[in-house]
Design goal:
single chain, 214 residues, alpha/beta, Rossmann fold
Length: 214
């Protein structure tokens, strides 16, 4: 298994026992060092690696690749494509890729103001709501877009995140050779499909489980 964006190791205890060999990587060297000092697991190694360039790994190296917690959304669209290309390269034939990404239809919820009792949280929510509405107004009708880069307050308003329509993401995955693509709700965990059209799923993000046959 290749686990991309391990951070402080939230996924390590759950996935490392399931595989003969587990490799966890992160773009932040401090996070890699943290995991090395806090997890003593015989079948696991932790490496500093940029997901856009997985040249440290051979072609067809992994049965399973995971990029959790919308980590792929922190880069622009060109870099996102680089990441997906690299994942396809290191996946074995018949391998599985699991990831999550922000849902463009979920932007409807971001427009709403949520009252906070704490004065600090209230000011932050006012700033967040104003910033999101302004950005969406600048972009025009978001429903006509396939994806948007939005600063919605995460990381103390330091980052933009990619919000993408699930059907657009599926088209991209199919072009890369992925098939048997399944999508799941971030809120209920239920599988999305004909009984729940994507435009009716307003959850913040969507989970994708997809297999590739090269």
């Amino acid at each position: 298994m290749l686990d991309i964006g391990i951070g402080a190791g939230r996924t390590i205890p759950y996935f490392s026992p399931l595989f003969k060999s587990y490799v966890g990587i992160d773009y932040a060297e401090s996070m890699v060092n943290y995991c090395r000092s806090h997890f003593d697991i015989s079948n696991a190694v932790f490496q500093y690696q940029d997901a856009r360039d997985l040249s440290g790994f051979h072609n067809d190296s992994f049965d399973f690749v995971q990029f959790s917690y919308n980590g792929i959304d922190y880069v622009n669209t060109a870099d996102r494509q680089l990441i997906l290309n690299e994942i396809v390269r290191v996946l074995k034939n018949g391998g599985t890729f699991f990831f999550s990404t922000h849902n463009l239809y979920g932007l409807q919820k971001l427009r709403k103001f949520n009252f906070k009792k704490n004065p600090y949280d209230l000011l932050r929510e006012l700033r967040r709501c104003h910033q999101v509405r302004k950005q969406l107004a600048d972009h025009g009708n978001s429903e006509e877009k396939d994806f948007l880069m939005i600063n919605e307050g995460g990381g103390d308003f330091k980052f933009e995140y990619c919000y993408i329509k699930p059907e657009k993401q599926i088209v991209t995955l199919k072009k890369l050779g992925f098939n048997r693509i399944r999508t799941f709700s971030s809120e209920s965990g239920e599988e999305l499909g004909p009984d729940m059209p994507f435009e009716e799923h307003l959850g913040a993000w969507v989970y994708y489980l997809c297999q590739i046959v090269k």
